[in-house]
Amino acid sequence: MKFVLNYIRREEWSPYVAGTLLGIVGIAAVWASNSLLGASGAFENVAGMIGKAIAPAAFDNMYFNFIMPPGITTGVILVIGLFFGGMVGAATSGTLQWGKKGSANSDDQWKRIFGPQTWKRWLLAFVGAIILEYAAGIAGGCTSGLAISGGMLLAPSAFIFIAGMFASGILTALIVYRNRY
Amino acid sequence: MGNYIITLVLGVFFGFALNKAGLTKYHKIVNVFRFTDMAVLKFMMTALVVAMSGLYALRGLGLITFPNIPATYIVGNLVGGLIFGVGMALSGYCPGTCAAGAGEGKLDYIVPGLLGFLTGAVIYGLTYDQVFPKISAITNYGNTTIPDLWNLSSFLTVVAFALMAFFLFYMIDRAGWQRKEMIKEE
User: Fold this and answer.
1) What distance in Å separates the CA atoms of residue A125 and residue A113, rounded to the nearest whole number?
2) Residues of the domain holding B132
3) What is the pLDDT of residues A21-33, one digit of tens each?
4) Residue B70 maps to a domain
5) HSE toward the beta carbon, residue B73, CA cutoff 13 A
6) Which of A15, A141, B13, B146 could form a disulfide with B43 if both were Cys (CB 3.0 to 4.6 A apart)?
7) Which phi and psi angles does B89 have, rounded to 5°?
8) CB–CB of B32/B39 below 8 Å?
9) Partner residue facing A148 (CB), from B30, B44, B105
10) Within the 4-33 window of chain B, which residues sit less than 8 Å (CB to CB) from chain A?
11) 8 Å CB contact between A103 and B106
12) How would you classify residue A134: left for phi > 0, otherwise alpha for psi between -120 and 50, otherwise beta?
């Protein structure tokens, strides 16, 4: 019992243990609610909600009316759960960053490569996030909604997506890191 | 309402697993593309082996039916994946890990991350009609699985996948498929 508690308090688990937990969560999602995990769709639901409130005419299209209707869907609830899950995880290891000084540019490796300026991190992260969400739309899901959820059902789409993701991820890292790759 | 509570609990465990695997950190995500830390790949492959074994076993026992299987349209899945990898290597997150990292209180996840996803979602939603129907119509195989598509035994497919994953773990952990990190020593 003590071993288990100590393990929970560790900041970083073996990826095999954490991966087993995610696998069980994936099974539970199908068993308990006949649904799949996924994160990118939730941002579409919320974007539609905000868009329809601000500029209803512009957001009155097929996508925001029928494909990804706005509202607090179960997908949005799942992302809220993700938020609190990350919080609980960090709390158990005492690594919460709320209100901490370095939390605006949180990664040491980033700072070593790109320097300490926060705006640089925020700019690249913002552009990266736009690319991620757009790509998830085209592919039919993100790492959780397609790679994990599709892969565990043995959908070919998941493995095609993973192959593409690694190919361009490696290439992008090569370009960004150059001689420090 | 019950469904919402189940989903919330699932989300919390999901975010907890992402945090403990270290995926809410920029360097973990990027270093898998540099082959200096393969935790992301080990984490994903372990989750796939566990979930796939459980789900196919439960379906074989008649205890569950599969939900809507993510559709296969080769060109779109591949192009999407290719664009996705660029975003991952630049930002060091994906939509799920960003939400979990935001919960940890990291401002570079909360502000540029969540706002970026919402912006991307708006751009996607407004250009959907011009892009998605066309790209998803090419090489479309529908909501299929590998065993169904190629007429394979699903049991043997799961076993083969698991063996492949174990081989991969062995090569990473024991046969030097992971490179040494050089950045720290500067």
Assistant:
1) 14
2) 76-138
3) 999 999 999 999 9
4) no
5) 18
6) A15
7) -70, -30
8) yes
9) B44
10) 4, 6-22, 24-27, 30-33
11) yes
12) alpha
**Residue A55 burial (C-beta neighbours within 10 Å; 0-12, 13-18, 19+):** exposed
- CA–CA distance, A177 with A171 (Å, rounded to integer): 10
Query: What is the three-state SS of A125-155?
Result: HHHHHHHHHHHHHHHCCCHHHHHHHHHHCCC
Is the pTM higher than 0.90? The answer reads yes
Tokens 């420090």 found at: A180
B87 chain-A contacts, CB cut-off 8 A: 127-132, 135
Mean pLDDT by 10 residues, chain B (186 residues): 91 98 97 96 98 98 96 97 98 96 97 96 95 95 96 97 97 90 70
- Give the amino acid at B62: G
* Residue B67 lies inside a defined structural domain of this protein: no
Contact between B14 and B23 under an 8 Å Cβ cutoff? The reply is: no
Q: Which of residues 78-137 of A touch B (CB under 8 A)?
A: 78-90, 95-100, 103-110, 112-113, 118, 121-137
CA distance A84 to A81: 5
Is B28 inside any structural domain? Answer: no
Q: Which value does ipTM take for this structure?
A: 0.96
Encode pLDDT of B128-173 as tens digits. 999 999 999 999 999 999 999 999 999 999 999 999 999 999 999 9
The number of domains in chain B is: 1
Helix residue ranges, H only, B39-94:
39-60, 74-91
For residue B73, the cross-strand partners are B140
Q: Is residue B146 part of a domain?
A: no
Q: How close A2 comes to chain B (CA, Å)?
A: 18
pLDDT, residue A123, reads 97
Q: Are A95 and B25 in contact (CB under 8 A)?
A: no
